Amino acid sequence: xxxxxxxxxxxxAQELQEGDIVNLGIGIPVLVADYIPADRKLxxxxxxxxxxxxxxxxxxxxxMDLINASKLPVSELPGASFFDSAMAFAMMRGGxxxxxxxxxLQVSQTGDIANWAIPGKDVLGVGGAMDLIVxxxxxxxATTHLDPQGQPxxxxxxxxPLTAKGEVDILVTxxxxxxxxxxxxxxxxxxxxxxxxxxxxxxxxxxxxxxxxKFVSRPVSLEQRGA
Length: 227
Description:
Belongs to the 3-oxoacid CoA-transferase subunit B family. Helix content is about 15%, strand content about 25%. By secondary structure, the chain is an alpha/beta fold. It has a single domain (about 5-210), classed as 3-Layer(aba) Sandwich (Glutaconate Coenzyme A-transferase). The strands form 2 sheets. It has a 10-stranded mixed β-sheet with strand order 4-3-2-1-5-8-10-11-12-13.
């Protein structure tokens, strides 16, 4: 059975296009680097100062001086460049990142996102999330549909501290893909393991079906880039 987190990363990778400059957030998004289609050339940026991040290297080729913002080992593609965090954030804030793939604690039906703090728990800091969400041209949230306690993450209104209001463009979970247009949430696709009624039971947010809505089957295996 396919690992849910890897499936979400694989599906999010399908939203990336030739030539995109893309920043990957921590958690599920870092896995996206391993699932970019082999025939698609794009540029992965990391806020710790890399442009040209490649897939996860084999264990015998890991260099712990070459890591992403999540402190996980990465490879570098031909032509990769390195710079300080100030330059990395200037790229993010200056609108030079085409897409960002980030995690989420909650996403509302109007495209609000909360992804940096859970009330009552220690706060590690917002990191570069606010900069990325406001600076990137397209914001893709890659997250599980439910939290570890089985509570919905796709909600009418966020109850956690907001990272940004109305900035989410695409939401990818293990069950569905939603898009947001003019403050409206649209269901673009859903896995055929659930009926629309079952999906609605775990999705309090209000949404409508896209004209080209479709059911999809999850692949039985995922081919990892560089594997």
